[in-house]
Automatic annotation (TrEMBL):
Record text on subunit structure and interactions: Homodimer.
Native source organism of the sequence: Candidatus Bacteroides pullicola
GO MF terms, alphabetically ordered: 2-isopropylmalate synthase activity; acetyl-CoA C-acetyltransferase activity; manganese ion binding
EC number(s) reported in the record: 2.3.3.13
Name listed for the protein in its UniProt record: 2-isopropylmalate synthase
Pathway in which this enzyme or protein is active: Amino-acid biosynthesis; L-leucine biosynthesis; L-leucine from 3-methyl-2-oxobutanoate: step 1/4
GO biological process, one term: L-leucine biosynthetic process
Binding residues for Mn(2+): D14, H202, H204, N238
Role this protein plays: Catalyzes the condensation of the acetyl group of acetyl-CoA with 3-methyl-2-oxobutanoate (2-ketoisovalerate) to form 3-carboxy-3-hydroxy-4-methylpentanoate (2-isopropylmalate).
Gene expressing this chain: leuA
Length: 498
């Protein structure tokens, strides 16, 4: 008989903490609904005390999603728990996730406390959360570096206090797989009452071992895994959902099953990447562009004879279909709507009409429109309510001459224009922009990326601009890379707080 592993998705909490990846509530609802279709058991929807935006998102996700448990994060602080309980009031199934650091480093430097006091605070937080909900998860932050004997005492105490799930985070991504597995085994063997709770893994990828550690935890008794789509998350990220789901599907002998509908993996990956403007590395396992591309002659020959020679996963099993690059200028609205639905995006008629209009404009410039292009177009009206918009841009540049740009902006309905020269077309365009928006802004980071292949491709630009001691993140996408750069800069400016 096979065992069931619960999938706890934290894309919208730990994943969303990545600078520049913040989503608005509407986008978070879109992701949450897709996670529901994907079959996750728990959605960590946010950290309600951290901001009104997070609070509101937990409320709206709770209303939008039916069967997964909605989880809200707190510190071991009563006010946090009060606010989380309030944010969860509309959830059909709800969980409070509370916890505290347990490693000596956290106890000493973060809390200026001692081991006994930390246990008292942990127990008090769990008991307090249980007043609001029946399902309370406790996290022992930095459990990866916490000594096992003390960790076992903490876990035993919180289970006695009413914790239903105990989370053992490798917060710093430090553990070796053998070490992490041993930790889970130790808890299974030394904690009285461990069978009254589910052990959860929560691994970070600082040393590239998040998935290996998670699997080691599962093999030693953990029955919940905390994961994110595409492995996004703080620093080097979290364990990626798609990797764990496919490991268990490929290795049936392990005898552990999840509720994940693996055919929804690829569309979910694309949606998250597109909404968060967070590219997926081409060689990323399962969802990277090259994950199923066999380029060496020997491999191609083998795959043509029989795919099983070099492929352990059928791309269809993760939702990669053969039609993923077929839309062209001749594709109709229905084809676009269908493709968007496959990618998990359901648009109302009015929005669909607008996206179709943009699609036709893009198809004029670019022969094949792929999934990434479509997702960028579907997200493009994020700029619709922006105060500052690019009206026009004209640039002349070449070798041996100065680049010159003239640029027009629409600022709250009023038109402004200026021109400037620079050492290249982007420099000239940004100088012209800065003549109109006269503020102390400094471009800190600038990344240009083609979405897929071909010289007619859409370019994506990510930027970081410093203004008034804050870093603002901007994004632009256009077949004209200079325009994409200016759009990304304007995106940053639109986020300025004053
Ligand atoms: O990495 C971590 O320790 C966390 C906890 C807050 C669960 O994200
Ligand atoms: Zn984490």
């Amino acid at each position: 008989m096979s065992d069931r592993l619960f999938i706890f998705d934290t894309t919208l909490r730990d994943g969303e903490q990545v600078p520049g990846c913040q989503l608005n509530t509407v986008e978070k609802i879109q992701v949450a609904k897709q996670l529901e279709l994907l079959g996750v058991d728990v959605i960590e929807a946010g950290f309600p005390i951290s901001s009104p935006g997070d609070f509101n998102s937990v409320i709206e996700i709770s209303k939008a999603v039916t069967w997964p448990t909605i989880c809200a994060l707190t510190r071991a602080v009563q006010k946090d728990i009060d606010v989380a309980a309030d944010a969860l009031k509309f959830a059909k199934h709800k969980r409070i996730h509370t916890g505290i650091g347990t490693s000596d480093e956290h106890i000493k430097y973060k809390f200026n406390s001692n081991r006994e006091e930390i246990i008292e605070r942990a127990v008090a937080a769990v008991k307090y959360a249980r007043k609001y909900v029946d399902d309370v998860e406790f996290y022992a932050e930095d459990a990866g570096r916490t000594d096992n004997e003390y960790l076992a005492r903490v876990i035993e105490s919180v289970i006695k206090a009413g914790a239903t799930v105990v989370n053992i985070p490798d917060t710093t991504g430090y553990c070796l797989p053998s070490e992490y597995g041993e930790k889970i085994k130790y808890l299974m063997e030394h904690v009285d009452g461990i069978h009254n709770a589910i052990i959860s893994t929560h691994c970070h990828n600082d040393l590239g071992m998040a998935t290996a550690n998670t699997m080691s935890g599962v093999l030693n008794g953990a029955r919940q895994v905390e994961v994110t789509i595409n492995g996004i998350g703080e620093r080097a990220g979290n364990t990626s959902l798609e990797e764990v789901a496919m490991i268990l599907k490929c290795h049936k002998g392990i005898g552990i099953e999840t509720n994940i509908n693996t055919q929804k993996i690829y569309p979910t990956s694309r949606m998250v990447s597109s909404l968060m403007n967070m590219p997926v590395q081409p060689n990323k396992a399962i969802v990277g562009r090259n994950a199923f591309a066999h380029s060496s002659g020997i491999h191609q020959d083998g795959v043509l004879k029989n795919v099983q020679t070099y492929e352990i996963i059928d791309p269809h099993d993760v939702g990669i279909d053969d039609n993923s690059i077929v839309l062209t200028a001749r594709s109709g609205r229905a084809a676009l709507k269908n493709r968007l639905q496959v990618l998990g995006v359901n648009l109302e008629q009015e929005k669909l009409d607008k996206v179709y209009e943009d699609f036709l404009k893009l198809a004029d410039k670019k022969k094949d429109i792929n999934d990434d292009d479509i997702l960028v177009l579907a997200g493009a009206d994020r700029t619709q309510n922006h105060r500052i918009k690019l009206d026009y841009l004209q640039v002349t540049s070449g070798v041996g001459v100065h680049s010159v740009a003239s640029l027009g902006l629409n600022i709250a309905g009023e038109k402004f224009e200026d021109c400037a020269s620079g050492n290249g077309p982007v420099d000239a365009a940004i100088k012209a922009l800065k003549k109109i928006i006269n503020r102390q802004m400094v471009l800190k980071e600038f990344t240009i990326q083609a979405i897929s292949k071909g010289s007619d491709d859409m370019g994506k630009v990510h930027m970081q601009v410093e203004y008034d001691n804050h870093i603002y993140y901007g994004f632009g996408a256009n077949t004209d890379i200079i325009a994409a750069s200016v759009e990304a800069y304007i995106d940053c400016i639109n986020k300025f707080k004053d």
